[in-house]
Amino acid sequence: MLDTLHIKNYALINELEIQFDKGLNMITGETGAGKSIIMGALSLILGNRAEGKHFFDPSKKCVIEGEFNIGAYQLNSFFEQNDLDYADHTIIRREITPDGKSRAFVNDSPVTLVILKQLGEQLIDVHSQHATLQINTEEFQFLVVDSVADSFALKQSYKESYMSYKKAKRELEELKETVKKAALELDYFQFQFDELDGAKLVPDEQGTLEQQQRQLENAEDIKRSLNAASRLLENEDIAVLTQLKDAMSQIEGISSFLPEAADLAARVKSTLIELKDVAAELTSLEEDTHLDEGTLLEINERLSLLYSLQKKHHVDSVEELIQLRDDLEAKLLAINSSDEQLERLEAEVIEKLKVALHNAKELSSARRLVLDTIAGEVQNTLLNVGMPNAVLQIVLEPLKEGEMRESGVDTIHFLFSANKGQALQSIHRVASGGELSRVMLAIKSLVAKTSALPTIVFDEIDTGISGEVALRVGEVIENLATNMQVIAISHLPQIASKGAAHFKVYKEDRANRTISNIVRLDQSGRVKEIAQMLSGANPTDAALEHAELLLKG
Q: How far is CA 454 from the centre of its chain?
């Protein structure tokens, strides 16, 4: 429930704090005193968007803060899902800066307006004359029936099975479309795969072939250069090896006189040995090198094939061709196995449809069991609030065979007649604003017995009624407040007298400024306020006596 509402720098309010009672809280005041301002402030912490800039002092930010006692409402999972710190006494704060920027907080953690609205809907239900429009929506009508039938678990089971069926059906349709397109491309894919698979592609093959090609194309130059190098080392008159041998002999001849020469001779000898190995390898390479026209032709043909495939498929390497081949193989495998996939998915869709239809029928049966009960109880309440001839009929009509919606396999209609001889029609077509308010009050009183809302706000629900009817409406609201916290804004003394707590909104002038304020009335203050509601600003003794009688109930 809402414990405290704190408003700072909003519209005509400089700063005020309202501490609400757990039962019925009445708010009264003259037209224009600021009751709608308080409702506007409350709507901001419930996640509604800030329409325009409403600042008492345009240079300061507006702050609306509400403290809620939510210990009994089982909202832990909501807080956990949205990564919020849970507390039995939760504080919701909304701040709007002078430049129009808005921020929202739950227990000092910043939240989006979406999350704030989701939380607000679980804390407070605001009912105004405008809200009576929702009575004709299918969503609200099913909510009423499911609340009384206690069928939310059935509804959730159906919804989950319905969404699972829809997902499977969507996957089946997508697969059918994919198979259809693939069938048109099957021959093309097969041709491409056969061509690449027939090429017997080998990783790193192209580089090796290109190296072999270069060697074979330059075989004569290679052979000539190797032969020349070998002759320079061994076979010429000035062969390098012969000269190194002579140099080594000369150095060894003086090593007995010059100790350093021995080391130099050893180094020359080592070089001589290395060059002999080089000369031997040169000879061997020269003997092995020869021009093989047949091999060169084969290599050129193989490279030509590789280059042609790369150009055709817009790639730059054999490795990419191999990847393309593998992808084509996977596509062909998928196409060839699509019949099995289709059979599996079709069976899955049939099974999930069966489950969804079963759950839908259970939900529909549970709803049908309470239709007469809802209509009867609402009519009894309407009888007590001055609508003795009101008739409510709730009709569930099955959808076409095999058709389903997220709400089930039925459509729902609240048909209503307020007067004798009046044909039943959709409720918004035959009920006036005041009648709709009383119908909504009767419905919410019924729903509150089975799914008590934490707090309900009635914003001028008494429009269009007076006298004995107003007294009966007050009694219904009073009874409703035994199960939940109720906040009601009223212009009628018969309703205002029912409150456990009574707040008066008023305007006053301070330092050339008009401000709105609110005060909780004591017993004498309530008598005076209700007497003024009965007879005007200067109540008569009779009005005061009547006010006391109303308060005594």
A: 26
Kindly give the pairing relationship between strand 410-417 and strand 425-426. Answer: antiparallel
* 465 vs 378: CA distance, rounded Å: 18
Q: Per this entry, what is the length of the chain? A: 553
Instruction: Indicate if 210 and 329 belong to the same structural domain.
Output: yes
Alpha-carbon distance 103 to 137, whole Å? 32
Q: What does the alpha-carbon distance between residue 309 and residue 312 come to, in Å, rounded to a whole number?
A: 5
Closest among 73, 80, 81, 13 to 44, alpha carbons compared: 13
For residues 418 and 233, the model is more confident at 418
- Whether residues 62 and 188 share a domain: the answer is no
- Predicted confidence (pLDDT) per residue in 434-457, tens digit: 778 788 888 888 887 776 567 888
Task: Report the pLDDT value the prediction gives residue 155, as an integer from 0 to 100.
Answer: 93
Please answer whether residues 488 and 156 qualify as being in contact, where contact means their C-beta atoms are separated by less than 8 angstroms.
no
CATH number, domain of 484, equals: 3.40.50.300
DSSP state of 386: T
> What value does the mean pLDDT of the chain take?
85
The amino acid sitting at 264 is L
Question: How many structural domains is the chain composed of?
Answer: 2
What is d(CA 106, CA 116) in angstroms, rounded to the nearest whole number?
Answer: 8
Looking at the structure, tell me whether residues 114 and 187 fall in a common domain: no
pTM of the model: 0.63
If you ran DSSP here, which 8-state letter would residue 424 be given? Answer: P
Q: Please give the span between the terminal C-alpha atoms of the chain, in angstroms, as a whole number.
A: 26
